[in-house]
Amino acid sequence: MAQQYGDVFQIKLGSRNVVVLNGEDTIKQALIKKGTDFAGRPDFISFKLVSGGKSLAFGSYSNLWKAHRRIAQSTVRAFSTSNPQTKKAFEQHIISEIRELVKVFLKKTKQEKYFRPSQILTVATANIISALCFGKRYSYEDVEFKSVVGRNNQFTETVGAGSLVDVMPWLQSFPNPIKTMFGNFKNLNLEFFAFIEDKVTQHRATIKPGIIRDMTDAFILALDQGKRGTNGVLLGKEHVPPTVCDIFGASQDTLSTALQWIVLLLIRFPEMQTRLQQEVDNVVDRTRLPSIEDQPSLPYVMAFIYEAMRFSSFMPGTIPHSTTTDTSVNGYHIPKNTVIFINQWSVNHNAQKWANPGVFDPTRFVSKTGDLNKDLTNSVLIFSVGKRRCIGEELSKMQLFLYTAILAHQCNFIANPDEPSTLDSCYGLTLKPTPFSIAVTHRGSMDVMDSYVTDLQKADNSM
């Protein structure tokens, strides 16, 4: 539609007028240059159901929201990238989980020959965010945890009903399939929020002065006594569960989707898988595992990840925005409270920016000198930009690097020859690959991974 109607056009969805923004320049003009004007969220019914109605991701733009975001952002950074000690601890959580993932992959291959990896990847990513938020991981067979992860899949299936009710609220007035699905959507949100509230309650009962075990502890210490923002608003203990809920829920779906695409692309392009393995072997050798310090020396690994994000555009649109005031973009007047759709796909598939955008080609991000072209990577739009930019972006990229580098270092991924060799996708909360199955073999033995985890356990026991 952008090719036909331009970078700014209006559509009618049910009772709502919606302005769609396309193209890198237009989107950045709105979200960065006029960030406050476009920082709102629509008053959608479904948004009020997420994270107990106090969601940071889905909440309206206000002084309270700005104070809430500052606390959430600083805490996420403290547990991922800004503090060397916690960054290393986070890396250790990730590597330990990848070891468990590889063991499950090898076991599934032995049992079934070819298996679908999507659910396993979802549990693996949920386990990492669980370690970050709650200080513990779960067994892949844990009933409670499988139930939580299963809710995420059901959420994806029912979120479309929420979208329809948002623009056609009268669908709630009489029995129909959308009303039933919307009821399921409402219940899933309540159940997930209850799970998070229970974890926060457990943390409050066992927290010790001066010891921060995980991100939930950090939020409890920051908010339980009341935290006054620079703008005078007061955040209290009731904001702890919704903050944890947002971080846990958002990270789980986006990261597991990204990893599904990476695994699919590894089996669809075996020559690229081989090149990844060669680069990692040359830099890391076979005696240790890749670490976050190796990232600058692995430009093809990073190029593969950025091209996977660009090509799949697994977040083709952001959560809908709304205007907080009368404003304009590209000369078009846009009234206050207008619903705004941000078309990230249009940025990642712009033929003027990307040669053959429908072709998967990681080398587009590698310069003539063999380095990663960081100017070009900055043009890939997945985590949004401006005031609503995802606070977990760096945390997610760190995980994607370690997953990709370590899996390439340790494993061979093989396509099921009985399945069509496609790159098709299906739309839910994110753009996921259509179901596919794989086999996984080890490139050596588990010795290096086992030694890494054993050394970690010894270090923990000696503390």
Tell me what the structure shows.
With 463 residues, the protein is α+β, with helices and mostly antiparallel strands. The protein has one domain: Cytochrome P450 (Cytochrome p450). Strands 1-2-8-5 form a 4-stranded mixed β-sheet. The chain starts with a helix and ends with a helix. One of its GO terms (molecular function) is steroid 17-alpha-monooxygenase activity. InterPro entries: Cyt_P450, Cyt_P450_CS, Cyt_P450_E_grp-I, Cyt_P450_sf.
Label the overall shape. Answer: globular
SSE order in H/E notation? Answer: HEEHHHHHHHEEHHHEEEEHHHEEEEH
* CATH architecture descriptor text: Orthogonal Bundle
| Count of discrete alpha- or pi-helical segments spanning 4 or more residues | 15
The whole-number mean of residue pLDDT values reads: 90
The share of residues in helices is 40-55%
Task: Going across the biggest sheet, name each strand in turn.
Answer: 1-2-8-5
What percentage of the residues does DSSP assign to strands (E)? 5-15%
The major pleated sheet works out as: 4 strands, mixed
| CATH homologous superfamily placement | Cytochrome P450
Distance separating the two termini: 60 Å
User: What number of structural domains do the residues give?
Assistant: 1
Number of strands: 12
CATH class membership? Mainly Alpha
Output the structural class. alpha+beta
- Cα-atom radius of gyration: 22 Å
Question: Low-confidence parts lasting 5 or more residues at pLDDT below 50?
Answer: none
